[in-house]
Amino acid sequence: MAIGVVAVQGDFAEHAAVLEGAGFSPKLVRGYRDLFGVDGLVLPGGESTTQAKLIDSAGLRSPLEGLIREGMPVLGTCAGLIMLSRTIIGGRPDQWSFDFLDVEVLRNGFGRQVRSFEAELPVAGLLGAMHAVFIRAPVIVAAGEGVDVLAEVAYKFVDGTTRVLPVVVQRNNVLAAAFHPELVGDSRLHVLAFGAPAEKLI
Which residues are catalytic? Predict the structure, then answer.
Protein backbone atom coordinates (compact mmCIF):
# COMPACT_ATOMS: atom_id res chain seq x y z
CA MET A 1 0.00 0.00 0.00
CA ALA A 2 1.15 3.51 -0.79
CA ILE A 3 0.56 5.78 2.20
CA GLY A 4 0.71 9.52 1.74
CA VAL A 5 2.30 11.45 4.58
CA VAL A 6 1.36 15.14 4.61
CA ALA A 7 4.79 16.75 4.61
CA VAL A 8 4.24 20.48 5.00
CA GLN A 9 5.47 20.66 8.62
CA GLY A 10 6.13 18.42 11.63
CA ASP A 11 7.53 14.92 12.04
CA PHE A 12 6.55 13.53 8.65
CA ALA A 13 10.00 11.96 8.11
CA GLU A 14 9.62 9.82 11.24
CA HIS A 15 6.22 8.60 10.04
CA ALA A 16 7.66 7.74 6.64
CA ALA A 17 10.44 5.70 8.27
CA VAL A 18 7.98 3.77 10.46
CA LEU A 19 5.71 3.07 7.49
CA GLU A 20 8.61 1.79 5.42
CA GLY A 21 9.73 -0.46 8.27
CA ALA A 22 6.22 -1.93 8.44
CA GLY A 23 6.20 -2.81 4.75
CA PHE A 24 4.21 0.15 3.42
CA SER A 25 5.35 2.49 0.65
CA PRO A 26 5.41 6.00 2.11
CA LYS A 27 4.95 8.98 -0.18
CA LEU A 28 5.58 12.53 1.03
CA VAL A 29 2.66 14.80 0.13
CA ARG A 30 3.52 18.44 -0.48
CA GLY A 31 1.11 19.18 -3.32
CA TYR A 32 -1.98 17.90 -5.08
CA ARG A 33 -0.12 15.67 -7.53
CA ASP A 34 1.54 13.80 -4.68
CA LEU A 35 -1.87 12.37 -3.77
CA PHE A 36 -2.15 10.37 -6.98
CA GLY A 37 -2.09 6.65 -6.27
CA VAL A 38 -2.11 6.80 -2.46
CA ASP A 39 -4.19 4.28 -0.50
CA GLY A 40 -4.08 6.00 2.91
CA LEU A 41 -3.04 9.22 4.60
CA VAL A 42 -1.04 10.30 7.67
CA LEU A 43 -1.48 13.71 9.29
CA PRO A 44 1.63 14.00 11.49
CA GLY A 45 2.44 15.76 14.72
CA GLY A 46 3.79 19.27 14.65
CA GLU A 47 2.15 22.67 15.11
CA SER A 48 -1.49 22.54 14.09
CA THR A 49 -2.01 26.23 13.29
CA THR A 50 1.08 26.26 11.06
CA GLN A 51 0.03 23.03 9.38
CA ALA A 52 -3.42 24.42 8.62
CA LYS A 53 -1.91 27.49 6.95
CA LEU A 54 0.59 25.46 4.92
CA ILE A 55 -2.02 22.92 3.83
CA ASP A 56 -4.12 25.81 2.55
CA SER A 57 -1.19 27.49 0.78
CA ALA A 58 -0.26 24.18 -0.88
CA GLY A 59 -3.78 23.76 -2.21
CA LEU A 60 -4.23 20.52 -0.27
CA ARG A 61 -7.18 21.26 1.96
CA SER A 62 -9.96 20.39 -0.48
CA PRO A 63 -8.24 17.31 -2.01
CA LEU A 64 -7.45 15.86 1.43
CA GLU A 65 -10.98 16.52 2.63
CA GLY A 66 -12.40 14.80 -0.43
CA LEU A 67 -10.28 11.66 -0.07
CA ILE A 68 -11.05 11.25 3.62
CA ARG A 69 -14.74 11.91 3.10
CA GLU A 70 -14.77 9.21 0.40
CA GLY A 71 -13.49 6.70 2.95
CA MET A 72 -9.72 6.69 2.54
CA PRO A 73 -8.12 5.49 5.81
CA VAL A 74 -6.28 8.19 7.72
CA LEU A 75 -4.08 8.28 10.82
CA GLY A 76 -3.57 11.52 12.72
CA THR A 77 -1.11 11.94 15.59
CA CYS A 78 -0.96 14.87 18.02
CA ALA A 79 -1.43 17.88 15.70
CA GLY A 80 -3.04 15.46 13.25
CA LEU A 81 -5.68 14.67 15.87
CA ILE A 82 -6.38 18.40 16.21
CA MET A 83 -6.65 18.76 12.43
CA LEU A 84 -9.23 15.94 12.28
CA SER A 85 -11.38 17.08 15.22
CA ARG A 86 -14.74 18.84 15.16
CA THR A 87 -13.99 21.46 17.83
CA ILE A 88 -10.64 23.04 18.77
CA ILE A 89 -10.24 24.83 22.10
CA GLY A 90 -7.33 27.23 22.39
CA GLY A 91 -6.68 27.61 18.69
CA ARG A 92 -6.45 30.78 16.67
CA PRO A 93 -9.79 32.41 15.77
CA ASP A 94 -9.17 31.59 12.10
CA GLN A 95 -7.94 28.03 12.71
CA TRP A 96 -9.87 25.37 10.80
CA SER A 97 -10.09 21.59 11.04
CA PHE A 98 -11.35 18.82 8.77
CA ASP A 99 -14.21 18.01 11.20
CA PHE A 100 -14.13 14.23 10.65
CA LEU A 101 -13.95 13.17 14.31
CA ASP A 102 -16.75 14.17 16.66
CA VAL A 103 -14.32 15.16 19.39
CA GLU A 104 -13.55 18.38 21.24
CA VAL A 105 -9.82 18.90 21.77
CA LEU A 106 -7.83 21.35 23.86
CA ARG A 107 -4.54 22.36 22.25
CA ASN A 108 -1.54 21.73 24.55
CA GLY A 109 -4.06 20.41 27.07
CA PHE A 110 -1.51 18.27 28.89
CA GLY A 111 0.73 21.33 29.31
CA ARG A 112 3.75 22.90 27.70
CA GLN A 113 7.04 21.20 26.82
CA VAL A 114 8.10 20.80 30.46
CA ARG A 115 4.95 18.74 31.09
CA SER A 116 5.85 16.16 28.43
CA PHE A 117 5.54 12.59 29.69
CA GLU A 118 5.56 8.93 28.64
CA ALA A 119 3.17 6.09 29.47
CA GLU A 120 2.53 2.42 28.74
CA LEU A 121 -0.91 2.15 27.17
CA PRO A 122 -3.14 -0.82 26.41
CA VAL A 123 -4.80 -0.11 23.05
CA ALA A 124 -7.89 -1.97 21.88
CA GLY A 125 -6.99 -4.11 18.87
CA LEU A 126 -3.30 -4.37 19.76
CA LEU A 127 -1.49 -7.14 21.65
CA GLY A 128 0.80 -5.63 24.26
CA ALA A 129 1.00 -2.07 25.52
CA MET A 130 2.25 0.85 23.44
CA HIS A 131 4.99 3.11 24.76
CA ALA A 132 3.35 6.51 24.26
CA VAL A 133 5.28 9.80 24.14
CA PHE A 134 3.18 12.91 24.87
CA ILE A 135 4.78 16.23 23.83
CA ARG A 136 2.63 19.37 24.16
CA ALA A 137 -0.20 16.96 23.50
CA PRO A 138 -3.85 17.82 22.95
CA VAL A 139 -6.47 16.65 25.44
CA ILE A 140 -9.68 15.11 24.16
CA VAL A 141 -12.22 16.94 26.32
CA ALA A 142 -15.29 15.19 24.90
CA ALA A 143 -16.06 12.47 22.35
CA GLY A 144 -19.36 11.93 20.55
CA GLU A 145 -21.37 8.72 20.56
CA GLY A 146 -20.04 7.62 17.16
CA VAL A 147 -16.41 7.76 18.31
CA ASP A 148 -14.76 4.60 19.67
CA VAL A 149 -12.21 5.16 22.44
CA LEU A 150 -9.37 2.66 21.95
CA ALA A 151 -7.03 3.86 24.72
CA GLU A 152 -7.08 6.09 27.79
CA VAL A 153 -4.46 7.54 30.13
CA ALA A 154 -4.68 8.63 33.76
CA TYR A 155 -3.02 12.03 34.08
CA LYS A 156 -2.36 14.23 37.10
CA PHE A 157 -2.68 17.90 36.25
CA VAL A 158 -0.75 20.75 37.90
CA ASP A 159 -3.78 21.56 40.07
CA GLY A 160 -3.48 18.10 41.64
CA THR A 161 -6.54 16.57 40.00
CA THR A 162 -6.25 13.26 38.14
CA ARG A 163 -8.44 12.47 35.15
CA VAL A 164 -8.73 9.45 32.87
CA LEU A 165 -8.72 10.80 29.32
CA PRO A 166 -9.14 9.27 25.84
CA VAL A 167 -5.89 9.32 23.87
CA VAL A 168 -6.65 7.00 20.91
CA VAL A 169 -9.98 7.35 19.13
CA GLN A 170 -11.53 6.03 15.94
CA ARG A 171 -14.56 6.75 13.80
CA ASN A 172 -15.02 4.73 10.63
CA ASN A 173 -11.92 5.32 8.46
CA VAL A 174 -10.33 7.90 10.78
CA LEU A 175 -7.94 6.86 13.59
CA ALA A 176 -6.20 9.45 15.76
CA ALA A 177 -3.87 9.54 18.76
CA ALA A 178 -2.83 12.34 21.11
CA PHE A 179 0.76 11.03 21.28
CA HIS A 180 3.66 10.21 18.92
CA PRO A 181 4.02 6.48 18.11
CA GLU A 182 6.43 7.32 15.30
CA LEU A 183 9.01 8.72 17.74
CA VAL A 184 9.56 5.27 19.28
CA GLY A 185 9.38 3.38 16.00
CA ASP A 186 6.12 1.59 16.83
CA SER A 187 4.15 0.95 13.65
CA ARG A 188 1.14 -0.81 15.16
CA LEU A 189 -1.24 2.17 14.98
CA HIS A 190 -0.24 2.60 11.34
CA VAL A 191 -1.01 -1.08 10.76
CA LEU A 192 -4.31 -0.75 12.62
CA ALA A 193 -5.27 2.29 10.53
CA PHE A 194 -4.33 0.88 7.14
CA GLY A 195 -5.37 -2.74 7.50
CA ALA A 196 -2.15 -4.72 7.27
CA PRO A 197 -2.12 -8.40 8.37
CA ALA A 198 -3.20 -9.05 11.95
CA GLU A 199 0.11 -10.62 12.94
CA LYS A 200 1.73 -7.21 12.67
CA LEU A 201 -0.44 -5.93 15.53
CA ILE A 202 1.45 -8.02 18.11
Answer: 78, 180, 182
pLDDT at 197 over 90: no
SS (H, E, C) the chain: CEEEEECCCCCHHHHHHHHHHCCCEEEEECCHHHHCCCCEEEECCCCHHHHHHHHHHCCCHHHHHHHHHCCCCEEEECHHHHHHEEEEECCCCCCCCCCCEEEEEECCCCCCHHHCEEEEECCCCCCCCEEEEECCCCEEEEECCCCEEEEEEEEECCCCCEEEEEEEEEECCEEEECCCHHHHCCCHHHHHHHCCCHHHHC
Cα(136)–Cα(178) distance, rounded to whole angstroms? 9
The answer, as to whether pTM is greater than 0.90, is yes
Please count the structural domains in the chain.
Answer: 1
Q: Give percent of the chain above pLDDT 70.
A: 94
Q: Are strands 139-143 and 101-106 parallel, antiparallel or unpaired?
A: antiparallel
| 184, 185, 188, 191: CA torsion to nearest 10 | 140
Which CATH number goes with the domain that contains 167? 3.40.50.880
Q: Residue 194's domain spans which residues?
A: 2-201
